[in-house]
From TrEMBL:
This is Helix-turn-helix domain-containing protein. Residues 7-62 form the HTH cro/C1-type domain. GO terms for molecular function: DNA binding. InterPro entries: Cro/C1-type_HTH, Lambda_DNA-bd_dom_sf. PANTHER family: DNA-BINDING PROTEIN, DNA-BINDING PROTEIN-RELATED. SMART domains: HTH_XRE (SM00530). It comes from the Bacteria. It holds the Pfam family HTH_26. It comes from Nibribacter ruber. SUPFAM superfamilies: lambda repressor-like DNA-binding domains.
Length: 69
């Protein structure tokens, strides 16, 4: 998929664990793990907003388009 999720990179920069982020954005560990590993097929804007707020970042810091050609 040409959309890469850099959630793990932002979590490392902010030194935040998946468990801590899960509590801050009120998502289950399994759903955050699916998003973190790039297995998610979609993400709600409300979820993206909560993650950006918790990690003090922009959506572009989390999601990246990579041209596969």
């Amino acid at each position: 998929m040409p959309i890469v999720v850099n959630l793990d990179v932002m979590m490392a920069k902010r030194k935040m664990s998946l468990n801590e982020l899960s509590q801050k954005v009120d998502l289950t560990l399994s759903n955050l793990s699916i998003l973190k590993t790039g297995k998610a097929k979609a993400v709600r804007f409300t979820t993206l907003e909560a993650i950006c707020k918790a990690l003090d970042c922009q959506p572009g810091d989390i999601l990246e388009y990579v041209n596969e050609s």
